[in-house]
Amino acid sequence: MSLGNKDLLFEGRGIRKKYVREGFLGSRQSTTDALRGIDIKMRRGDLLGVVGESGSGKSTLAKIICGLEDLSSGELTWNVKPSGKSHPAQMVFQNPFNSLNPKLKVGYTLREALAYGGFKRMASVRKEEVVALLDKVGMNKVNPDAYPHQFSGGQRQRIAIARALALNPAVLVCDEPVSALDISIQAQILNLLKEINKKNRLAIMFIAHDIEAVGMISKDVIVMKEGSIVERGDVVKIIKSPEEEYTKKLIEAVPVNPYL
User: Using CA of residue 36, residue 232, residue 199, residue 44, what is the dihedral sign?
Assistant: First the structure.
């Protein structure tokens, strides 16, 4: 169904996710409400921050938006068609040391993604396309025949971003993409994401527990607690004058990063 707005990419209404932990011999033991009725939408060019403590539901929401998890109830409606075989939302994961296959050359990984995103054979993906993709993430002098272990953490995260971009996503979902990196590298990745957002009007959802990092990259933010959105709006306004006590604690808990 059409959402009636050409810039509106998706809209979620009342998204709920329950996890059931089975007991002995399959008897129901417990139910966890990971998401409790989330309303969310993104438009082309948006750069939305999502913050909250561990267990607040951030990653579960990200997985549902990327099609990696099914919602238990509610509705998630897309206004764009997928590119090739890929989902319209693509994930950049937290740990760049685990997200790339160590046995595959970087060029092969990107060729595979380009073929999948464009719905064509890998043999038809030219080397120039891989080089151009690496250039988009600031790695124009990289050897595509190198393996992941030959790169630093920041470089691997750039490659992971390039792989996601190869799939022509409408939304790039970044799940704590700088938390595993040295603080000196974090600002570089944040600046890269801002540049990609500005140049391509690519909608980006930036998920973090660090509201300061979110403030460096996003204009709008939603604050999550125990599967619910407790505050949303302009990130600068919320940082300066949070309404929720929970948000105040998130702000107070942020260590000072001199590179941000």
Answer: positive
Amino acid at the residue 147: Y
Q: Are 35 and 226 in contact (CB under 8 A)?
A: no
Look up residue 186 and give its two tokens: 């974090």
Helix (H, G, I), strand (E, B) or coil at 92: strand
Q: Can you say whether the dihedral through the CA atoms of 246, 248, 249, 250 is positive or negative?
A: positive
Q: For residue 156, what is the enclosing H or E element?
A: helix 153-166
pLDDT for res 90: 96
Three-state DSSP state, 124 = helix
Beta carbons of 159 and 106 less than 8 angstroms apart: yes
3-state secondary structure 191-230: HHHHHHHHHHCCEEEEEECCHHHHHHHCCEEEEEECCEEE
Residue range 214-258, pLDDT digits in tens: 988 999 999 999 999 999 999 999 999 999 999 999 988 876 555
- Cβ neighbours around 100 below 10 Å, total: 21
For 79, 81, 209, 220, the CA distances from 2, given in Å and listed in that order, are: 6, 11, 33, 25
One-character DSSP codes across 227-247: TEEEEEEEHHHHHHS-SSHHH
pLDDT beneath 50: ranges in the chain: 1-2, 259-260
Tokens of 80: 């764009």
Residue 68's CB is within 10 A of a number of other CB atoms, namely 14
